[in-house]
Predict the 3D structure of the following.
Amino acid sequence: MKIVRQFLVLNSFVLLLVFLFSCGNKESKKDPRTVFCYNEMGGLSSLDPAATSNFENIWAVNQLYSGLVQMSDSLKILPCIAKSWDISDDGLSYTFKLRNDVFFHDHEVFNGGEGRQVKAQDFVYSFNRLYDPKVSSALSLLENINQDKGNKGFEAPNEETFIIHLKKPFSPFLGILTMKFFSVVPEEAVKKFKEDFRRNPVGTGPFKFKYWEEGTRLVMHKNEKYFEFENKQRLPYLDAVSVTFIREKEAAFMQFLKGDIDMLSGIDAFNPSEVLDADGKLKAFYQDKFYLQTQPYIKTDYIGILVDESLPHVKNSPLKLKAIRKAINYAFDRDKLIKYFHNNIGYAANSGFIPKGLKSYNPKKVKGYYYSPDKVKKYLAEAGFPNGKGLPVITLNTTENYMDILEYIQGQLNENNIKLKINIQNSTVLKTGVAKNEFNLFKKSWIGDYADEENFMSLFYSKNFSPKGFNYTHYHNEEFDKLFDQAQIEKNDSIKTVLYQKMDQLLIDDAPVIPLYYDQIIRLVRHNITKLGNNPMNLLNLKQVKKSN
């Protein structure tokens, strides 16, 4: 009976929380508190910032934790817990001066249950735990940390000074520190909860953890002691954030229309043909119910081409010929691909590999490919296959998710005398095969982990050959590598932009890749939600959001 009573009490508590933090209109009229609710179809696996390798986790963790620096919606690096920083002349040491008014959330792990002040040693501890592969997947981001300096490259000479030592200069480093991996956590909580810290988070963010029923709902309350202000008013404005995990997009959309959800995000979160017109605009029927929020997303969808002629299956493939790779790039219409197969969401990749949203993206500076049957004919003849005569069938490996787009490309290539076979693999087989250089032609996409073009150009740097690195095409160009190395130590952003544009043009000219489209962030937001920021990183920031009842 005792177990039954405990079960009933627990369920009553769960129901009470769900009631208190529902986003429905009826509840909001009764309760003056404002609760922002969004749906996460993909679920949530951890609230430990060390495990933020996917957007589902990143969005929730961003509300709970803070780091040294943060990224603005315009992708500028701003102070956060670090009020200022200094980079040594040789680019090897980063010294951060911390604020003295940042406190961890109130929690039982602290004396008296009151959150203590964040100190530099907390960052030493937080960053060092990222070296444990059982805890984090951020190990590759630490490769340039100079561990010979002691403390694995991190030191705290006093409570308000934190220093990071690098092996070599790396200009994108501050951008990497905006990633949620590098949030500060209290050692007391990690030691108490161990592996279960994933569901017992203690941070410094604008919201603090209240409740998480996995697969059902996550609730976060306003952090009354949050350190950031806007117009002399302490942030955040919202009283709470509630996250639901409805997997069926039709059911989530109905909850959104009822007002139980304030925002839906992503093309997979709703039926685009139901909500958007042929031009990708919100249909008139819905315009008084919610608004459309869009933004370039630093993500490039592409077809990769293995060009390493030391591999037998490349040596015997027509794809080793640059002319064939160029012919394929000219053989389909990217604008029609976006219009008819992507609901006009996104942008045709008619420039380089670097996507719209980053500073060096400039179609006038980087000339990409466009649909041109005449160019196809020219390059097929140049490769020794006039009008495609004698050209072997080329096999493209992909998952079934992209079949409609790839069948369209297949049809257009066929019209231009290039025979393409589509080979469907499951995602694990494709990922493994690409990493091990088993496929000559493969469909991939790349999302920027941080807002620097280096993240995209590193895919074609010769020292990053897969399977150890992410250069899946095994592209090698000495001039490209030289420019890449130069960009890593360049402090002037304008010069860096020019260097990346030169790299991007070299890449396009050599054609080890077929850019398809640059993606776009798309959100449906109810009209009573204001100040919801949007940025090319697709990072959800709710600290300035306001909601009217």
Observations:
- The two ends are 43 Å apart (CA to CA).
- The chain has two domains: 31-244+528-547, 297-519.
- Residues 297-519 form a domain with the Dipeptide-binding Protein; domain 3 fold (CATH 3.10.105.10).
- The first helix runs from residue 2 to 20.
